[in-house]
Design goal:
mainly alpha
Length: 166
């Protein structure tokens, strides 16, 4: 399981970094185009699509490392047993939500087969695929985190609170 996790993390991180660099390049071209005679009608749409994919991939990684913004003032007062229960409920609800998102995004992808983006003329199925990717990786990481809690809840809670999973 650790080897699969490392492969997934490496793949997602590499894709996210590549998208980030691509976004910087596209936005830089867009800025240069404003002050020159270049026209780049595609840059706005492309930067939006790149940003959507960055968020989709980064969201799953944020779930893995429990790095979403939260207010944990009250949560820190709980003992480990209550924290374990709260984490299990939290990850289970996120799991259920992402299963629903997985099914819904698949329906969107079917609709997207028939439409194209306005400027780039890219099939919208590629854009709706980002929701599927987010839900797919989030489901995988929810299962991973729930198994981690089951295996060693004290270590899992420590890892969740300190932003890292070893």
């Amino acid at each position: 399981m650790k080897k699969i996790d490392l492969i997934l993390e490496k793949m997602i991180s590499t894709m996210t970094i590549s998208l980030y660099i691509s976004l910087i390049v596209v936005v830089f071209i867009q800025i240069v185009a404003r002050y020159t005679s270049l026209t780049t009608p595609w840059s706005d749409e492309l930067s939006r699509f790149i940003f959507i994919y960055m968020i989709s991939l980064g969201g799953a990684m944020s779930l893995k490392y429990n790095q979403f913004a939260d207010v944990d003032l009250l949560f820190q007062k709980f003992n480990n047993t209550v924290k374990k229960i709260v984490y299990v409920i939290n990850f289970f609800l996120i799991f259920i939500f992402n299963i629903v998102l997985l099914v819904s995004s698949f329906k969107f992808m079917i609709v997207g087969l028939k439409s194209q983006s306005a400027v780039l003329k890219v099939p919208m199925v590629l854009m709706f695929l980002s929701m599927f990717i987010l839900a797919f990786f989030s489901v995988i990481y929810c299962i991973y985190l729930l198994l981690k809690i089951k295996k060693d809840s004290k270590k899992a809670i420590y890892d969740f609170e300190n932003g890292g999973l070893e």
